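Practice problem: predict the structure.
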Amino acid sequence: MSALDLSPLNHRAYRKLLLAMTLEAQRLELLLAITDDRNLQDQIITAYEAELKAQGITPLRVRLDPKRPSLRAALQDLTDQTPALQTGEPVVVTVLNAGELLGVRLKDEKSEQEKFFFSLQWTREALQAFAFPIVLWLPDAIATRLAQQAPDFWSWRGGVFEFAPETRPTPEGQPDGQFLRPMPLPTEERPQSTIPIGDLEHQIAQLEATAPDSPLLITLYNNLGDAHANQYTYQPALEAYEKALTLATSKVDVPGQARSLFNLGKTLSRCGRPLQALDYYQQALDCYRTLADHRGEASVLNHLGIAYGSLGQYAQAIEVFQQSLSLMREMGDRRGEGVTLNNLGSVYRSLSQYHKAIEFYQKDLAIAREMGDRQGEAASLGNLGNAYLLLGHYRKAIEFYQHSLVIRREIGYRQGEGKSLGSLGNIYYLMGQYREAIKYHQKHLSIARETSDLQIEGGALNSLGLAYFSLGQHSTAIDFYKQSLAIAREISDRQGEGKALGNLGNAYLVIGEYREAIECHRQYLAIAQEIGDLRGEGEALGSLGNVYHKLTQYHDALEFQQQSLAIARKIGDRQGEASALFNLGNALARVGEKLEARQSYETARALFAEMGLEKEAKYCDEALHNLGNLSSG
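Answer:
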């Protein structure tokens, strides 16, 4: 990533930092670089080291030792080992590992972090021996405490350069799954924590015993929540975020409140509770607006839109995505603009407005290519493949998926590679090439297990179940569905649990085990109603209608299909509406209401044709042709 790939604010900070380094390349200058985004930090260092080398300045790195956290000692060791520092050549030294001081165990007397701050108070004069610029990278929590506990050292700084977390694209979802691509803030899609859970818990216990009013506890509890969320242990993650929120609220720490509220919302969404997440997102949004933090506001709006989309509240999703898009454009944040355009495309895809979705995906793709963002380009190509798949243009979809797969392999993005393989498996499944589909899904499953991504593993197992079921290997398919269900329950993914139950119910329907099918679909319905998932509720109702139709209980089937139709129309799901109308026509025909059945089939056909779904339109034609041959039940 070059500096030109940064957001405007980060780009300005980068240019100022580079200028400060090059102007004083043979004189001591203390430059403080602050960010909580470790990936961004690594990319910026790589970029400025390349520019320094081009100007004939040697870049060097040194890491602080948590067991001996002395800046002077680290620099002296480097000088002793590096001839360039002894001969007076132009050099810039980057100092790393200060962030790890958040993760050291607290001792009975002084923590290593406190020793570091204490040493800096007398380091100022000792550093005069080093005739080169020093770039000290710090997370925000360390920088804040540094200003408070080592004020003399802080006042001696030559410059402070703050870098806000950059937005990063994450993989696109599958057409029948979680389809929106969040814009994470400030961490990646799955929260990362380099500190083991046990160490974090020990630090918190020690700090609560020795300094219960320390603001560091807010950071540590949020980090503990991230560590649990990364392991899919969502309940302890939520508890940790709640404790962070309580502390931040008691100290009137609005940034801490915003982060904690946002984390609570994201975690609830991840474990399939988007309805509960809405309130936390709204509170986080209010905090960021109070802080006039437009980047935070735009990020929350994106996640809020994703939650609305997963609940089938598409009009609300579009509204908040449009607000986010306006903010991104005002800030000149092209990456954020692309992410938001992608999310808008995914809402329109869910509304079965596939051509409009393609327009948004193409705009997202253009921005990714403009920015040289290969990962974003691959995600955009994958989403274009999804849209063309839903239009029935399978060959074109395969081209997009293959292109996406090539890019992801080139950049070494294993999780993305798995997504592309899964998408190819889905399309071969729809083309009836089930054994080819199984090959791709097995590769997807292997990568999910390799990367320890349980949620993706559950999805791959579901896809394998569908393929084996279509081959007539029903017991194997049901075994895969049950494995997927077990994972969803293990990680408390309520939406995933509902989807797995729905697939199990559909399998039991086909093999004639109707009572088991009803039980699965009723559980799916209960989960969907519990979490406010209108789309899932409509699917479960339609599936129950199909089971009762097989049981020749046509009046019950009719009632379920009418409820499914009402939900599809409420949320604007045109494909769901067309499917419900087709199934409703089947039930009406069986109870002797053939005129109403004809109207349902004709309306369904018109919707399918409008969406370009020719195969489904032909099913309606066949139903209309056979209508006169049916006897009522």
